[in-house]
Specification:
The structure is a single chain. The termini are far apart. The chain has three helices and seven strands; from the N terminus they run αββββαβαββ. By secondary structure, it is of the alpha/beta class. It is about 30% helix and about 15% strand. It has a five-stranded mixed sheet, covered by helices on one side. It has a two-stranded parallel ribbon with strand order 1-7. The chain has a domain of about 90 residues: Nucleotidyltransferase, domain 5 (2-Layer Sandwich). The longest helix has 17 residues.
Amino acid sequence: MAANAGTPQVGGRRRRHRRRGVMSEINVTPMVDVMLVLLIIFMVSAPLLTVGVPLDLPQSQATTLDQDKEPLTVSVNDKGQVFLQDSEIDIKELIPKLKAVAEARGGTEARVYVRGDKRVDYGTMMKVMGQLNSAGFHRVALVSEFEQGS
């Protein structure tokens, strides 16, 4: 009798094929691709999110302040309109609304950024600054653009 090692026997049992075990590796390449696309989207869209009231800010040599959260911003445009963050308000309503926002954020110790157009009336700016001071906001910062060359 001849023995055939490579093929199953005719009248006997057939060889059973082993099933492969469960693959325990995770393919992270698609996840990395998605994360890189999201990173690029956020890098492109982040500068577009800091849009506010369009002003022509004065220039100065002052350095920027470090900030960890969105600041309270009061803006005055060249027409004398006053804005709290991005919404226009009457100058008489500035202090009650600013106090309400500041209390929700942690009290009057919050820094308030004041932005004023180059062509804004000096009296209007002083009225806004005086109201902020009389309301107890003593951490007031004036916003300007960095002066290029000189």
